[in-house]
Design brief:
The protein is an alpha+beta fold and 385 residues long. It has helices spanning 9-26, 30-36, 41-50, 69-79, 88-102, 105-117, 231-237, 239-267, 279-307, 313-338, 348-356, 366-376, 381-384, and strands at 122-125, 141-144, 148-158, 166-172, 181-187, 193-198, 210-220, 224-225, 269-270, 273-274. Strand 9 and strand 10 form a beta hairpin. Bound molecules: flavin-adenine dinucleotide (FAD).
């Protein structure tokens, strides 16, 4: 096992408690949640009681005032492979930070207690039927009506879309300027806000990914997050942490795929000997062990940089690219080493294979990550001229 100096005794104790909680409160519900296409609200509240949600929220808002990404990294590592659709990392480290950075004290006082308790589940809605990678292509629009904003549009592929109590919705606030975006806090029950289908997916079966519709939704001024023309910039601020969050989960799932495969190939025999004793199996496992360790070291380095406030968007893009591509290769090789059993749903590896496919697509595709990294090298179209 790789030595990971990033974590101290306190983190190890935290990991033990998360593991125990996950085994007691998460794992037993796996089949039910996979069939239901979503996790229960109870598990969110249970996580809240444990203090696992938005730990960074100040104590006056019900939080722990503990801003240490390593605790979230541990949650990610212990939860991702046990229940891939329980999107606590999205709540904690993708959506929650918008409240932390851009909410007024009044908004923090209103939203954080529920966010911390697990009674206010969060989602963020940027993608639309007509646009995903290209944020400037957003068509949802919000009109300033003086004492409120009027929101119209449709969003798709929204994680936590069915369970969410509050959705941060990105919408255009100036028809002439695609970069003038506002972030609007849309709450369950607001007239004109409806949820569409819970989307059937290749993997992540317990994740309630959904379509959302906004038809003349009246958004009170108190539900505008930050400057309604600067949402684009606000989204860019959080990208490094979002990509690090993803990267930590991709390595964790790949690591689990490796573990179950190692056990399987020691046990399964062919031609009178364990599958694992064939040179091909040994070499595959050796390659994967090396790639996984390298990816983990890189992620831990990014976490260390993040703790010092030095994680750049480019470095985080590298972490996302490296880990999601490594994960894709690892789950594929691991499934191959399982033979036909690997294709059967009763074998855990089949689930990881399906769940992993999205990692190279959401939170910015691998191609977009390469664009970002390439540009940081001065290789954009302007730079090349
Ligand atoms: C399960 C799931 C959960 C999701 N959760 C959320 C969520 O919670 N909130 C949310 O807002 N969105 C969410 N998404 C949307 C996700 O972020 C987008 O699917 C993703 O950003 C890609 O956008 P797209 O699907 O529109 O693909 P497109 O942008 O249409 O891309 C299609 C292909 O073209 C490539 N491409 C696009 N532009 C370029 C370029 N400039 N150079 C080279 N290649 C390019 C892409 O890499 C990709 O291969 C989720 C998606 C899924 C499937």
């Amino acid at each position: 096992m790789l030595d990971r100096p990033l974590f101290n005794e306190e983190h190890h104790m935290f990991r033990d408690s998360v593991r125990k909680w996950a085994e007691d409160e998460v794992v037993p519900h796996h089949d039910t949640w996979q069939q239901a296409g979503m996790v229960s609200r109870d598990v969110w509240e249970s996580a809240g009681k444990q203090g696992y949600l938005a730990m960074y929220a100040e104590e006056e808002y019900g939080g722990l005032g503990l801003d240490d990404f390593r605790f979230d990294q541990i949650l990610i590592e212990e939860l991702t492979w046990r229940e891939a659709g329980l999107f606590i990392p999205l709540h904690n480290r993708v959506v929650g930070p918008y409240f932390r950075k851009f909410a007024t004290p009044e908004q923090k006082a209103r939203f954080f207690p529920g966010i911390v308790a697990g009674t206010n589940i969060l989602a963020i809605a940027i993608s639309e039927p007509g646009t995903g990678s290209d944020v400037a292509g957003i068509r949802s629009r919000a009109e300033n009506k003086g004492d409120h904003w009027l929101l119209n549009g449709a969003k798709t592929f929204i994680s936590n879309g069915i369970l969410a109590d509050t959705v941060i919705v990105a919408a255009r606030t100036d028809p002439q300027n695609a970069r003038s975006l506002g972030l609007f806090l849309v709450e369950a029950g607001m007239p004109g806000f409806t949820r569409g289908r819970k989307l059937a997916k290749l993997g992540l079966h317990s994740q309630d990914t959904a379509e959302l519709f906004f038809d003349d939704v009246k958004i009170p001024k108190e539900n505008v997050l930050g400057d309604p023309t600067q949402g684009f910039k606000a989204m860019m601020v959080g990208l490094a942490e979002e990509r690090l969050t993803g990267a930590a989960s991709y390595v964790a799932r790949a690591e689990r795929a490796f573990e179950v495969t190692l056990a399987y190939i020691k046990d399964r025999n062919a031609f009178g000997r364990p599958i694992g004793s064939f040179q091909n199996s040994r070499f595959k496992m050796a390659e994967m062990r090396t790639q996984l360790d390298a990816a983990q070291v890189f992620v831990d380095h990014c976490t260390a940089m993040h703790l010092e406030g030095k994680l750049t968007a480019d470095l985080a893009a590298q972490a996302k690219l490296l880990t999601s591509e490594t994960e894709g290769r690892v789950v594929d090789e691991c499934l191959q080493l399982h033979g036909g059993a690997g294709y059967m749903r009763e074998y855990e590896i089949s689930r990881h294979y399906a769940d992993a496919r999205i990692s190279r697509i959401y939170a910015g595709t691998s191609e977009i990550m390469k664009e970002i990294i390439g540009r940081s090298l001065g290789l954009d179209e302007r730079g090349m001229r």
